[in-house]
Input
Amino acid sequence: MDTTRVAEQQIAGLQISPSTLAAIERQLKHVTISDDDQLFGLIHIRPINGYDVSFIVGREGKTVVVTIGGVIPSEQQKGLADSLEKIGIVAALRGATGV
Output
C-alpha cells in the first residue's frame, strides 16, 4: 500500500482518523479490484467509509501494490469523475502516481 503526496495532504486536510485510514487500506488489500469501482483508464475510484478513494493497482516484482492517489468525501465524487474525463487520462495518471 502506498499513497501519493496529494493523497497524504487530502487525508491530513480532511483529518481522516488513523482507524478510518486503516479500514480503507484493509478494504483495498482484501478486495483490490471490485465491481463497485468506477474506472478511468487505470485509475479506480471506489466509495469506502464515506470517502471516494482513487487508486491505481500495479506490481513491484511479484508484489501487488495499490497506490492511493486521492481521498475526497463521497458527495464530491461526481466532480472528481467529471474532472478526470475533462483533463484526460494521461494527466490524471501523472497526478495519481506523482510523476
In short: The beta strands are 2-3, 38-40, 43-48, 51-60, 63-73. The first strand starts at residue 2 and ends at 3. Helices lie at 5-13, 18-30, 77-87, 89-97. Residues 45 and 54 are 4 Å apart (CA to CA).
